[in-house]
Write a structure and sequence with these properties.
339 residues; alpha+beta; BirA Bifunctional Protein, domain 2; 2 domains; 7-stranded mixed sheet; 3-stranded antiparallel sheet; 43% helix; rod-shaped; binds phenylalanine; aa-tRNA-synth_II/BPL/LPL; aminoacyl-trna synthetase; tRNA-bd_arm; ligase
């Protein structure tokens, strides 16, 4: 009998099946209410007295071996379960990472920033909700100035002094107020105009404006800077500056680049002329410098402004400006491979 129990002990010790069902069977077999140990304990009273001590020891050993076994395997199984919860099946191949794509406006903006930072321009930003001073008055557009009509403005109804900026020239005013020349900065950002939305214009768009102020800055510097930009951005090396008017620059010009007339699209976007307007520019009006605390007798400078949507439409052959704001993933996905 005792030998038989010792054999059970060995068997129990050898048990090593790591699954729930087998473990449960093992538990029932040894420790269950109709299990082996129950039987053996019941048998105890029939054991002759001189064997009782040894018999008691072996069945106790069997009991603790069986209990210990159940406990350790159970713990192991639980740990495994937990690890599965956290990591899943570690042998499975990895999930592919879904890559997002940058918005085309952000891509073009970053490209513009890269091009200008190469020649020493930093990036400045300002608030989209502006006051009259920074958007108009400081820029040589006092109250009732007719040129205010050039930019249809969204005003905050309860306070006519507060508006949504119509251009990022407001950032340049802030920059001049807070920094001494030499100044070389570009200000990219979102601007707002109360215009009817169509394929060619939108009430929200993005601009990047540039400002360079130092001693003896000339119109030739402006032209060279714009030429450098158009070469880098479009690979085009022919530009034209057409006389124009902006209240904050004197003289002022529209920037045209020669796009060419090679394809049908070229004809379409340049209206058959080969020339394409990409923005405005000029020498900063001395009044503007004065308004921003810079002495116009000592310093001069140039400024320019361009629409980012316009440039993105040209580069990526996008026919409708509204696409940029609809955020249709079928449109956005196409820019995945870009930087
Ligand atoms: N701020 C002008 C606009 O939004 C563009 C511009 C900037 C023109 C700087 C000249 C100089 O139309």
């Amino acid at each position: 009998m005792i030998d038989k129990i010792k054999q059970h002990i060995e068997e129990a010790q050898a048990f090593n099946e790591k699954n729930k069902e087998a473990l449960e069977q093992f538990r029932i077999k040894y420790l269950g209410s109709k299990g082996l140990l129950k039987e053996l304990f019941a048998e105890f009273k029939n054991v002759p007295n001189e064997q009782k001590k040894e018999f008691g020891q072996v069945i106790n050993t069997l009991k603790s071996v069986a209990e210990e076994k159940v406990k350790t395997i159970q713990e192991e199984l639980e740990n495994k379960e937990e690890a599965k919860g956290i990591y899943g099946d570690l042998s499975r191949p990895g999930e592919p990472i879904v890559l997002g794509s940058r918005h085309p406006i952000a891509l073009v903006k970053n490209q513009i920033i890269d091009i200008f930072s190469t020649i020493g321009f930093n990036v400045s930003e300002g608030p989209e909700i502006e006051d009259d001073w920074h958007n108009f008055t400081a820029l040589n557009l006092p109250e009732y100035h007719p040129a205010r009509d050039m930019q249809d403005t969204f005003f905050i109804q309860t306070n006519p002094d507060i508006l949504l900026r119509t251009h990022t020239s407001s950032v340049q005013v802030r920059y001049m107020e807070n920094n001494k020349p030499p100044i070389r900065t570009i200000s990219p950002g979102r601007v707002f105009r109360n215009e009817a939305v169509s394929a060619r214009s939108h009430c929200i768009f993005h601009q990047v404006e540039g400002l360079y102020i130092d001693k003896d800055v000339s119109f030739a510097d402006l032209k060279q800077t714009l030429l450098y930009f158009t070469k880098e951005m479009f690979g085009k090396s022919k530009i034209r500056l057409r006389p124009s008017y902006f209240p904050f620059t004197e003289p002022s010009a529209e920037i045209d680049i020669y796009w060419g007339l090679k394809t049908e699209t070229d004809y379409k976007i340049t209206k058959g002329t080969g020339w394409l307007e990409i923005g405005g520019c000029g020498m900063v009006d001395p009044n503007v410098l004065k308004n921003c605390g810079i002495n116009p007798d000592e310093f001069s400078g140039f400024a320019f402004g361009m629409g980012i949507e316009r440039i993105a439409m040209l580069l990526h052959q996008i026919g409708d400006i509204r696409m940029f704001f609809e955020n249709d993933v079928r449109f956005l996905e196409q820019f995945k491979s870009s930087i």
